[in-house]
Specification:
heterodimer; A: alpha/beta; Rossmann fold; 10 helices; B: 82 residues; alpha+beta; Translation Initiation Factor IF3; 2 helices
C-alpha cells in the first residue's frame, strides 16, 4: 500500500520519527484496537487513536450521551445529547480522520459477548467505569491471549497497567476480586476531574500505539498511579510471579467468565 | 550520467516542507540496503534542507545534479540503520 500525498502530510509528524517511519505508520493503519467504554477514558483514547491513523477501531458502549458526560467525555458535544455514544464517537472520529474504519457495538460487555467482541482486535483498551466489567475484560483477555490496557479514574486520581500475555501480571494478579458492592464509590457518586480522563485515557492510547509499533517499554509488570493534587506519578513494580493467579496462573481456578453483580446505584 | 545505477526515483516537487523529506524518507524505506534513489526536488528550501535531513538519517549522499530548470536530482545511497 502506497501513501497518498495527503496521507504523507497527515502523518508527516509520525513518519519523520525514526521509531515510526513509513513502516510504523503502515502498522498503525493495519492495526485493530477495541475501546470498551466511550466515556471519560475512551473518549481521549478514541480521539488520539483515530487521529494517529489506527485503521480499525471498535467502540463498545450501551449508553446514550447525557449532559453530565460532557464535562469530561470530549468526543461528544452538546448537540449529541440523547444520541448513542458509539454513534457520536464514530462521527467525531470519522470527522477527524476518514482513513479510520469505526465499528460500533451498542451493548454492555457481558460474559456472553465479550469473547466475540475482542476476538478480531490486536489490542483492547478498558475504558469502563465499574469493577464487574474490569474483571470480565481482564479474564476474557487472559483467556483469549489478548493484550490490553487497564485504567481507572476517580476524583483527582488515576491508575493504569498494561497486560501482555506471558509478559507479566494481569489485573487479577494485583486485585484478586472485585471489592464488595458500594465499598468503593463509582465516579458517578464520587466525582472526577474531567482532565483526569484526558491524562489516563491518553496514556492508554500511547500504550496501544507503542504496542502496535513494537517500540519502547510497555507498562507491563507495573502499575502507574497519578495523584493530580500532589502532582505525583508513581510507577509501582508488581510481583513478577504470576503462577498463583486464579486466572493467568499455572493452575487457574477461574476457567469460565463471571458476570459479577453491579452495585445498585450504578444501574442507570 | 552513467556513474550510478539508479534503483528508484521519487519526485518531491509536488509537496512542501516537511512532506518533501517525508516523501523522500518513505521512498528510501522501500529500498534495500545499498540501493540508490534519485530524488527530484525544487531549488530553494528543499535543496537546502532535504539533503541534510537524509544525511542525518545515516544515508549517503552521492551527488546533487542541477537540472538547470529549477530542479535538482539528489542521488542517495540507502544505508540501513542498526
Amino acid at each position: 500500500m502506497a501513501f497518498t500525498n495527503d496521507q504523507l502530510e497527515r502523518y508527516s509528524r509520525h513518519i519523520i520519527l525514526k521509531e515510526v517511519g513509513a513502516k510504523g505508520q503502515k502498522k498503525l493503519l493495519n492495526a485493530k484496537v477495541l475501546i470498551i467504554g466511550a466515556g471519560g477514558l475512551g473518549a481521549p483514547a478514541a480521539l488520539y487513536l483515530a487521529a494517529a491513523g489506527v485503521g480499525t477501531i471498535g467502540i463498545v458502549d450501551a449508553d446514550e450521551v447525557d449532559l453530565s458526560n460532557l464535562q469530561r467525555q470530549v468526543i461528544h458535544t452538546t448537540a449529541d445529547i440523547g444520541k448513542a455514544k458509539v454513534q457520536s464517537a464514530k462521527e467525531t472520529m470519522n470527522a477527524i480522520n476518514p482513513d479510520v474504519t469505526v465499528n460500533t457495538y451498542r451493548t454492555f460487555v457481558t460474559s456472553k459477548n465479550v469473547m466475540d467482541l475482542i476476538k478480531d482486535y490486536d489490542f483492547i483498551i478498558d475504558g469502563t467505569d465499574n469493577f464487574p466489567a474490569k474483571f470480565l475484560i481482564n479474564d476474557a483477555c487472559v483467556m483469549a491471549k489478548k493484550p490490553f490496557s487497564h485504567a481507572g479514574i476517580i476524583r483527582f486520581k488515576g491508575q493504569l497497567m498494561t497486560y501482555v500475555p506471558g509478559e507479566g501480571p494481569c489485573y487479577r494478579c494485583v486485585f484478586k476480586d472485585p471489592p464488595p458492592k458500594d465499598a468503593v464509590p463509582t465516579c458517578k457518586q464520587a466525582g472526577v476531574i474531567g482532565a483526569m480522563g484526558g491524562v489516563i485515557g491518553s496514556l492508554q492510547a500511547m500504550e496501544a500505539v507503542k504496542y502496535i509499533l513494537g517500540v519502547g517499554d510497555l507498562l507491563t509488570g507495573y502499575l502507574l498511579t497519578y495523584d493530580a493534587l500532589k502532582m505525583e506519578f508513581r510507577k509501582i513494580k508488581l510481583p513478577s510471579d504470576t503462577s498463583g493467579c486464579a486466572v493467568c496462573g499455572d493452575h487457574p481456578t477461574i476457567t469460565e467468565l463471571i458476570d459479577y453483580e453491579q452495585a445498585e446505584c450504578d444501574g442507570k | 550520467m552513467a556513474d550510478f545505477q539508479i534503483d528508484d526515483t521519487v519526485d518531491i516537487t509536488d509537496v512542501v516542507c516537511p512532506v518533501t523529506f517525508v516523501k523522500a524518507k518513505v521512498a528510501l524505506e522501500e529500498l534495500d540496503d545499498g540501493q540508490i534513489l534519485s530524488i527530484r526536488m525544487n531549488d530553494g528550501e528543499p535543496v537546502q534542507n532535504v539533503p541534510r535531513s537524509i544525511k542525518e538519517e545515516g544515508h549517503q549522499i552521492l551527488k546533487l545534479i542541477d537540472n538547470e530548470d529549477g530542479t535538482y536530482d539528489l542521488i542517495v545511497k540507502k544505508v540501513e540503520d542498526e
